[in-house]
Amino acid sequence: MEVSLMGNSQANVVKTGLPYRDSRVCCSYKNKIDDKVLFVNRVSFLGQNRSANLRKAQLRFCTKASVQSQPLPSDRDSGPLSSARPKSLDAVRLFVGLPLDTVSDANTVNHAKAIAAGLKALKLLGVEGVELPVWWGVAEKEAMGKYNWSGYLAVAEMVEKIGLKLHVSLCFHALKQPKIPLPDWVSQIGESQSSIFYTDQSGQQFKGCLSLAVDDLPVLDGKTPIQVYQEFCESFKSSFKPFMGTTITVRSFDFKQCQVHTISDLHLLWDTDVVSTLQFDSLQGISMGLGPDGELRYPSHHRLAKSSKIPGVGEFQCCDRNMLNLLQQHAEANGNPLWGLRGPHDAPSYDESPNSNSFFKDNGGSWESPYGDFFLSWYSSQLISHGNCLLSLASSTFGETGVSIYGKIPLIHSWYKTRSHPSELTAGLYNTAKRDGYAAVAEMFAKNSCKMILPGMDLSDEHQPRESFSSPESLLAQIRTACNKHGVEVSGQNSSVTGAPGGFEQMKKNLFGENVVDLFTYQRMGAYFFSPEHFPSFTKFVRNLNQLELHGDDLPVEEEVTESVHTNANTNIQVQAA
């Protein structure tokens, strides 16, 4: 038997010396979820110094347990969720995001054994699939056209073998944490051609993705970014073709159909009989990266102070040479060449409030002037044109495969209750109290037959600072209304695994409502995800979705023998084997 322990950056795999078939491991979280029991197969994803938390949560590893496979009629503290399941919920598919650095820049699988065991745990829990970030800076790291998909293919094979489905996010941006840069050769070009990056009014550059102004310019060794993205997608399609519609043998775990009485039955179910040969498209969907963090927006908030509880309005990103050229052309075409010299001169900076300058003021602000409408219309139209180009590229490339195409837009809810909606405007979404900025976005998605990913489904108005004039619920409702009008299917995500206050209840509210959600991806697997502070809440959330109840009363008392497993961080985790 192996027990995998994941720290902040790497996993330590320790042999316990116990025969695998003689020692079946489960996790029992007592008093955390009303004595409900969750089983996890040979894995504990834990950070450093977790032993005290394990004792506090009364987490134990045992070898024998009984499982009641039939759903129970009620859950005494589930509130309205104990009533009949809405018909619309049958269409909701639950995925879990894999770690952002699942594949290293050397194209190896990070924490491979821990992730494999985690995938089995998700499968046993009833999760349908996982989302895998695929990074431009990893797959095409060294040179243009030189692709290495080995690490991502290894993960796809792991996912397929376990019988989970796969959703891939193609990421053409960089990250600071964990550090995932743009391809080396792109960064080298940027050193001599800095105008390929976004620039703000003070000359500060954002080097996390390419400026949309260079989409059709041959700035990458004679090729345009769109051509490079196209070739990247074509190479991905060719390499992942075996996962797009194949006949394979998979293990099927339908607890309603299978008689499961002990934890040994669960492992026998995994190891032997419940298998099927069927048409199985393991790759179900592809998200096309559209900008910073994969979202359709400008990097208008990348320099906000992290210490501030009240976010500022952000800054317009239109001062690189190529953006200014486009602005000048637009101004001259509209007969106002002076309007094309630069962006708004009276707009606040990143951390400032809307009223710190005159552009975003609710009454008499420049955003309502003819110049304001001219600039904001141009700024947002460039973003929509960029999104249209990339989604069209993805649809044409993957259309024949039958894989669904997705794009993600941001949920920028700060200052939503003001008339000008400044944080949305600086991000490129021309949405104000008197103008629906999401209708054009939804129309663009519909044109390309793409589905829209909406993050922040765990956010509620009541937990937002009053001073931020924020309303994530109202903004989410507005976007969903625009999608319904244009026939665009919506998929959801939470904001982060650390969790917003009341996040699980808010997610259930969004998924159990009248608006159908095609797919919900919970972000994201890692050390905290499998911790006793978080995992019981997640399993209860899943149970409420699939109505599967597991009760601690079914667990017999067993004589236990304790064996300690030590990590490099001197964390002492008790593994109990009967």
Number of strands: 19
- Runs with pLDDT <50, length 5+? 1-89, 246-279, 548-578
Q: What does the overall shape look like? A: globular
Radius of gyration: 25 Å
**CATH homologous superfamily title of the domain at 93-244 and 280-305 and 385-416 and 431-550:** Glycosidases
CATH topology of the domain at 93-244 and 280-305 and 385-416 and 431-550: TIM Barrel
What top-tier CATH class of the domain at 93-244 and 280-305 and 385-416 and 431-550 fits best? Alpha Beta
Write the SSE topology.
Layout: E1 2-6, E2 11-15, E3 26-29, E4 43-44, H1 51-57, E5 59-62, E6 93-97, H2 112-125, E7 129-135, H3 136-139, H4 150-162, E8 165-171, H5 184-192, E9 197-199, E10 205-210, H6 225-239, E11 246-251, H7 263-271, E12 275-280, E13 283-288, H8 321-333, H9 370-398, E14 404-408, H10 422-426, H11 439-447, E15 451-454, H12 472-486, E16 490-493, H13 503-511, E17 517-522, H14 535-546, E18 561-566, E19 572-577
Helix pairs in contact: 2-4, 6-9, 9-11, 11-12
GO molecular function, one term: beta-amylase activity
Enzyme class: hydrolase
Keywords: Carbohydrate metabolism, Glycosidase, Hydrolase, Polysaccharide degradation
